[in-house]
Structure formats: structure tokens, C-alpha cells
């Protein structure tokens, strides 16, 4: 038996390797650097890793499309765009995550225990969050460029496991945070099982786990169509869980509400980019010729998701749960890009994912600032009069909400217009009509919050807006600047995306 050593194109894999190296250095810092210096060193390592990885992604853009790691990874324009979007969102998020007031001092201590109280009084800072974030980012970078089912599953678990842990690290409402982490973990395990089950069916259909081999089997039509249909359905379920589409959304509201707010923002933004990146690659390049089998399923899921997310959000009285159901509705909007199955749909999806992700991180950054003596205040009733107490904070949050609603001169309007136009060109008129109506419904609950903040008298309940740290301020300012720029001057980004938005098989 001859052993052939694997060929790894390290220059093409450099963004992922840099992030993994930063995560491993972070683990060593936890072991060898003193507690007082550890937070600043961890932040420096994490930020440096993310910036270097982004620079490497930009450098790779000039290379010709190719594969790496023995064909298990494909390097093309859309993959690099997804990686760039994930890294930019992670850089913005890392400043918010660095504001340690959001995280418990001792993750292993029982909530309310003497051990936790002593850790809090001693000023202990939870710095493990930095390497966990980098591990999650590494998985996200690999997810949209995977070109076989095994690599895709490994990336899915690498990005998911750190998020399960980080969801349970909130400083306040510790029991709710741990409950959120447990729900996320259990439902995530079920979704992974569905994904593996679908991968097994696709392997049985095509006799290979590579995307190219599965595509060849679909084009040839030599396999059993029932096995193909089951494989597509189960793989789709695993991916739809990650994006929070109905009826696989049950984890979203509880996890969004219970997790530390910086982690909620990072998870809501970056995970969607990675998951939709993988979904677009699979259904555009691998299963595109089988669209008559899966397109009706996605059409129904998109319509139900948009309607459900928009209607249920109206009744929410917690700002984080409202944003969770808003995220569900946006997952439905983004599914129209998958349904479009054309180049315009891919371009619009990439733009939408980046614009929505940046605005989401900024919105959750605002949520961290509204507090009382017990910590964050997410009850919408207590946000009344926020515009009078802190007009700048309320104005920034209002602008992010208008972007979510798709109001003109915001990034959300350009994203929705582009993605609905692509779906209309492909003949999916029904999903466009429902999308426009759902956007109108969604605008109601966004504007309701704006009215509550600016046109309702403040309550005397001790709620206040804390002065943001320089790190939180950076997150909000950068997110706001990008959201404004993408709404007023969208052409440069759209023109940048257009020549790169071509998948290779």
C-alpha cells in the first residue's frame, strides 16, 4: 500500500489557518499570561488575527479560481466574498465582545453561588471568550467554501460548538442564559443529525461525498430519485436550522434573549452569512439541475418564514425577542435569493447578507447600553422616552430599525430591492408578493418602537443609558457608517460583487 502525502495549498487556506493560529495562541495566553494583562493581550491577538485574515482574503482575490486541500475546499469569488463579509462582521463584533461587563466572571460557577459572588467581587474577567470566538470564525470561514459533505460537516461543528458555549456566559440572568445554551445545543445536535442523515443519502445516491461527483450524478440521472429527494430534504433541514427558518426556528427567540447580547449580535450576523453561503453553493452548483424537486419546498418555507416572522414580531414586548423574530423574517427574505437560482440572486444575496449583518451587530450594540441597576433592560415598555433621555443612542437604533424595514436611503432597501428583483426575474412572483407584504407588516413593528422611543413619555423606573466604552462606541459607529454608506452609495459594493459572484464547480 502506497501512502500519498496530502497536498495543502497553504496560501489559499491562509485566512482559516491565521484564525486557528490566533485561537490556539489565545488558549496558551489563558495558561501563561497573568490575569491583569490577559484581557488586552487576548483582544490584541484576536483583532490582529482577524485583520491579517482579511488582508489575506483580499490578496487571494487576485488569484485564479482553484481548489485546495485535495479538492475538499473550493476558492472562488463568492467564497472569498462570504469570507470577507464574515471577517468584517467579526472585527466589528470583537469590539463589542471585548466590553466584558456583558459576561459572567466565572463560567463554571453555579448561578448565585458563593463562588460566583467571589469571582465577581475580585474583578475576574472572562477572557476565554476570545479564542472561542476565533474558533467559531474559523468554522464560518470554512463553511461556505467547502466542496464535499465531510468538510462541510466538520465546518458546521467547528462553528457551532463555540457558540453553544458562549450562549451560556451572560453576566445577568444566568439561569436564562444557561437555559438558552442548553436549548441551542440540543436542537443543534438534532439539526446536525438531520444533516448527516441527508449526507448519507446523497452519498448513497451518488457514490461520493464531493460536490462535483454529486452534481455529475444529478445531471446523469443514474441514481434513485427518491434517495436524492430524501438527501436534499435532510441536508436542507440542517442548513435551515442554522438560518432560523420556519419551522426550524424554535431555538432563535430563546437563544437570542438568553445569550449575552454581544454574542447574540455576532451569532445573528456571522452565522447567517456562513450558512447562506453554504446553502447557495449547494443549491446553485450541486443541486441546480434538480431544482424542480427542491424549489417548491423552498418556496413554501420562504413564504411561511416571512409571514410568521413578521406577524409574531408584532406581539413581542422584549426587544431581543423582537429582533429574533425580525431575524426569522429576514431569513425568509434571503431564501428568495436561493429560489431565484440566477446570478442576480447570488449578487443580491451577498449584498443583503453583508448589509443585514453589519446593521444587526450595531443594533445589538445599542441594546447593551440600556440598563438599570440589575443590568440590561430589554423590556420594550421601559424603552419609552429613550429619545428624550439619550437622543443620539435612540436615533442610531431607529436608523438600524429603518434599515431592517427596508426604508429608502438605507442598506436594507437596496438589499430587498435587489433580492426581490432577482426572484421576480426567475419567475417566483408569489414569493415576491409575499415578501413585499411581509416587509410592510415588519415596518409596522419597527416604526412602533421608534414611536415608543421618541413620542412616548419616559417612565420613572430607573432605566438609563450608560455611557458606552470606547470599544462599544467603535462597534456602533462603524456599523452605522457602513449602513449609511451602503444605503446612499450602494453602487461601489454592487459593482465590486458583480464580477466575483460566479460559482465554480
Helix-strand layout with pairing:
Blueprint: H1 10-32, H2 38-60, E1 66-68, E2 73-75, H3 77-97, H4 114-121, H5 129-142, H6 149-166, H7 174-206, H8 211-220, H9 225-243, H10 251-258, H11 261-286, H12 291-314, H13 319-340, H14 343-367, E3 370-372, E4 375-376, H15 386-389, H16 391-405, H17 411-425, H18 429-454, E5 464-465, H19 470-488, H20 491-500
Helix pairs in contact: 1-2, 1-5, 2-3, 3-5, 3-11, 3-14, 3-19, 5-6, 5-11, 6-7, 6-11, 7-8, 7-9, 7-10, 9-11, 10-11, 10-13, 11-13, 11-14, 12-13, 12-18, 13-14, 13-17, 13-18, 14-16, 14-17, 14-19, 14-20, 16-18, 16-19, 17-18, 17-19
List segments where confidence is low: pLDDT < 50 over at least 5 consecutive residues: none
Strand share of the residues? under 5%
User: What is the end-to-end distance?
Assistant: 31 Å
Shape field? globular
Total helices: the number is 20
Q: If you compute it from the alpha carbons, what radius of gyration comes out, rounded to the nearest whole angstrom?
A: 22 Å
**Strand count, sense and closure of the main sheet?**
3 strands, antiparallel
Number of domains: 1
Number of strands: 5
Structural class estimated from helices and strands: mainly alpha
Helix content: over 70%
Short description:
This protein has 505 residues and is mostly helical. The protein is built from 20 helices and five strands. 72% of the residues lie in helices and 3% in strands.
Amino acid at each position: 500500500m502506497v501512502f500519498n502525502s496530502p497536498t495543502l495549498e497553504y496560501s489559499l487556506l491562509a485566512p482559516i489557518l491565521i484564525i486557528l493560529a490566533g485561537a490556539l495562541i489565545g488558549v496558551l495566553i489563558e495558561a501563561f499570561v497573568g490575569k491583569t494583562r490577559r484581557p488586552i493581550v487576548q483582544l490584541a491577538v484576536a483583532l490582529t488575527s482577524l485583520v491579517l485574515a482579511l488582508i489575506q482574503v483580499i490578496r487571494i482575490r487576485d488569484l485564479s479560481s482553484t481548489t485546495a486541500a485535495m479538492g475538499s475546499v473550493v476558492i472562488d469569488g463568492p467564497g472569498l466574498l462570504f469570507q470577507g463579509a464574515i471577517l468584517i462582521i467579526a472585527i466589528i463584533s470583537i469590539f463589542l465582545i471585548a466590553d466584558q461587563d456583558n459576561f459572567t466572571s466565572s463560567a463554571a460557577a453555579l448561578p448565585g453561588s458563593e463562588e460566583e459572588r467571589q469571582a465577581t467581587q475580585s474583578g475576574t474577567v472572562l477572557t476565554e471568550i476570545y479564542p472561542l470566538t476565533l474558533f467559531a470564525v474559523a468554522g464560518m470561514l470554512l463553511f461556505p467554501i467547502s466542496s464535499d459533505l465531510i468538510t462541510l460537516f466538520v465546518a458546521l461543528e467547528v462553528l457551532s460548538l463555540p457558540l453553544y458555549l458562549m450562549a451560556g456566559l451572560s453576566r445577568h440572568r444566568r439561569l436564562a442564559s444557561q437555559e438558552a445554551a442548553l436549548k441551542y445545543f440540543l436542537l443543534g445536535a438534532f439539526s446536525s443529525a438531520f444533516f448527516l442523515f441527508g449526507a448519507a443519502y446523497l452519498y448513497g445516491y451518488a457514490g461520493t461525498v464531493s460536490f462535483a461527483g454529486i452534481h455529475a450524478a444529478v445531471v446523469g440521472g443514474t441514481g434513485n430519485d427518491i434517495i436524492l429527494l430524501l438527501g436534499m430534504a435532510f441536508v436542507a433541514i440542517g442548513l435551515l436550522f442554522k438560518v432560523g427558518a420556519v419551522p426550524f426556528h424554535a431555538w432563535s427567540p430563546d437563544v437570542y434573549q438568553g445569550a449575552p447580547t454581544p454574542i447574540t449580535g455576532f451569532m445573528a450576523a456571522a452565522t447567517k452569512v456562513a450558512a447562506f453561503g453554504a446553502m447557495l453553493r449547494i443549491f446553485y452548483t450541486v443541486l441546480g439541475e434538480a431544482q424542480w424537486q427542491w424549489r417548491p419546498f423552498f418556496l413554501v418555507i420562504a413564504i411561511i418564514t416571512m409571514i410568521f416572522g413578521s406577524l409574531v414580531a408584532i406581539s413581542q414586548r422584549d426587544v431581543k425577542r423582537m429582533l429574533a423574530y425580525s431575524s426569522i423574517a429576514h431569513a425568509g427574505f434571503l431564501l428568495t435569493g436561493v429560489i431565484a437560482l440566477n446570478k442576480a440572486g447570488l449578487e443580491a444575496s451577498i449584498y443583503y447578507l453583508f448589509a443585514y449583518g453589519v446593521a444587526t451587530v450595531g443594533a445589538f450594540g445599542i441594546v447593551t447600553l440600556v440598563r438599570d441597576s440589575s443590568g440590561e433592560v430589554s423590556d420594550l415598555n421601559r424603552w419609552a422616552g429613550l429619545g428624550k433621555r439619550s437622543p443620539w443612542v435612540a436615533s442610531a437604533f431607529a436608523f438600524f430599525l429603518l434599515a431592517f424595514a427596508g426604508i429608502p436611503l438605507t442598506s436594507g432597501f437596496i438589499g430587498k430591492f435587489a433580492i426581490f428583483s432577482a426572484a421576480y426575474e426567475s419567475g417566483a412572483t408569489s414569493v415576491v408578493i409575499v415578501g413585499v407584504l411581509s416587509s410592510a407588516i415588519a415596518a409596522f413593528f419597527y416604526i412602533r418602537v421608534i414611536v415608543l422611543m421618541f413620542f412616548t413619555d419616559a417612565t420613572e423606573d430607573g432605566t438609563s443609558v450608560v455611557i458606552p466604552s470606547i470599544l462599544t462606541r467603535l462597534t456602533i459607529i462603524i456599523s452605522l457608517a457602513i449602513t449609511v454608506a451602503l444605503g446612499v452609495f450602494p453602487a461601489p459594493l454592487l459593482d465590486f460583487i458583480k464580477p466575483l459572484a460566479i460559482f465554480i464547480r
